[in-house]
Q: What sequence folds into this?
């Protein structure tokens, strides 16, 4: 099968880039172990993990023990489903710790969507920009 071109890939790209759910620290180990077991059944694997003594992204996401993880991402080809401690360090609840990330095709589109969301009263965890702790 020939590889898809970048243009075709962008045209086929859905609007959801990834979803995140919050988890409380005392439940993180068992939650990671649960998803480490379930995701392979869906054809997915641990794509990224953040934690360990220096709280950084591991080059090999399987090297961080579940008990040391503060955020973990699963997917077939890239991080699509995240489980993490809430950004604000408060307890994970139905809404705290959850977020949805939408795909955009340009920085201009990102900025346009962000401005509109702020204009409509949405709350952010920081303006658009690089998040080196999650990706390059």
A:
């Amino acid at each position: 099968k020939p590889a898809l071109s970048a243009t075709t890939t962008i045209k086929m790209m859905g609007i959801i880039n990834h979803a995140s759910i919050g988890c409380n620290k005392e439940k993180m180990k068992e939650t990671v172990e649960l998803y480490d077991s379930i995701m392979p059944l869906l054809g997915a694997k641990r794509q990224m993990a953040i934690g360990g003594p220096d709280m950084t992204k591991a080059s090999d996401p399987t090297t961080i023990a579940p008990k040391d993880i503060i955020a973990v991402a699963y997917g077939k080809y890239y991080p699509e489903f995240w489980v993490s401690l809430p950004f604000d360090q408060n307890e994970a609840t139905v809404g705290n710790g959850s977020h949805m990330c939408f795909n955009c095709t340009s920085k201009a589109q990102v900025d346009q969507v962000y401005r509109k969301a702020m204009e409509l009263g949405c709350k952010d965890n920081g303006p658009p920009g690089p998040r080196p702790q999650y990706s390059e």
Summary: The chain has a mean pLDDT of 81. The radius of gyration is 16 Å.
